[in-house]
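Technical appendix A lists one of the benchmark inputs used to test multi-chain prediction within the project. The record comprises two sequence entries:
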Amino acid sequence: MLPALDEEVIRHRIAKRIALDFEDGAVVNLGIGIPTLVSDYLPEDVHVLLQTENGVVGAGPKPEKEDLRFIGAGGRCVSLLPGSSLVASDMSFGLIRGGHLDATVLGALEVDSSGNLANWMIPGKMVPGMGGAMDLVTGARAVYVATTHCDKKGRPKLVKECTLPLTGEKVVSVVVTEFCLMRKVDGKMTLCEIAPEVTEEELRANTTMEYDVSPDLCPMRGID
Amino acid sequence: MAHKLIKPVMSAEEAVQNVKPGSSLMVGGFNYAGVPYTLIDALVVQGTKDLHLISNDTLYANDQHPEGIGHGKLVVNGQCRKVTASHVGLNRETQRLFNEGKMELELVPQGSFVERIRCGGFGLGGVLTPTGVGTIHEEGKQVIEVDGKKYILEIPLKADVALIRGHKADRWGNLTYFGTGRNFNPAMATAADLVIAEVDTIVAEGEIDANDVVTPGMLVDILVLKGDGYYASRT
């Protein structure tokens, strides 16, 4: 069993670590849940352009006063930063699919050894629809997955092979959980950073995904 | 002097009489923004059934709003035979009716959804997109390889009627949009036989600078001024 961390600690740790990966000037799409928190942790000298798939390029934080004419992709109101622009859906998805986004950050139900991602449906359950997720994972230059290491029943979410319907085939670039950062290197998922609460053996015992260990394996960055 | 370039301004009730039983119906909007709320409310009162609703989402229907919001009401009111959308997770009735076999549901990735509409309106036979390759969305569709890369052939979507939402219209039907209300509206304006635009204000021709027009009036058939409903007045 992996140590149980506080849920808020987990969420913020993952978001903070992902934020460290973004360079000044990057164009990024953030999904709902943990990915939304990433914008809270961008270093002050890193200006990132947040894109929402419904048509904002340059979205800011939730405004104090709700205005339903400015909606973000998750259905929350957004503000517009100076320099932002508003586009229609065909342009928005042209930006996404056309490789104009540096990164997208999404949640996961399963990620596997090949970098396959499943995050949109569980057969037999209510099917909400894929929304823009399939386009985002196909088109963004880097796909970041922000997820807890295991599900609520303690089963690994970093699996050998996805069993749930895929959102995208071999699309994942980086996976960040509360315990590690895995990066796809030469087509293989590779453990690059590990959290102080776990050993390599413990991590492997709770990860069915096949992965290499980076020769530069280091403590997970961003943990105070 | 009235002429055909001057578009009729109608009440919502009058305008939605063009929606007939069995019609395919595009409705603009993403979540709360860019939704023709007044037209939808009139269509709910009219009660036209057997519709094929083509809209990105079906907005909300939940404990707070069991009657639904926006075109979510068309689903709750049992007026849809089929829904084509990218995301329906916020409307519990869409899911229930589908699961009980009472309504057809076609889910399309959002980028493919808008491209299918654009194909419908732009005279294209389809579009090749890498989105969905290697997923269950590929099932039943043609996969075409170009330069060694796989693409799914997505085919055009058209409709009998489009209900769209603009910001400002002039009497020729030229439209501007506001905020995130643009979304699918400009694409839908090209892809339906009859386009009804609900707008915040209607001005005389020439009062919108041609540089600001997003949807040219030639695509718009009927103008309706938005009403004072809760969401119409807040968007």
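Helices of chain B lie at 12-15, 37-46, 72-76, 92-99, 110-122, 185-188. Chain B has one domain: 9-124+156-225. Comparable benchmark entries are summarised in Table A2.
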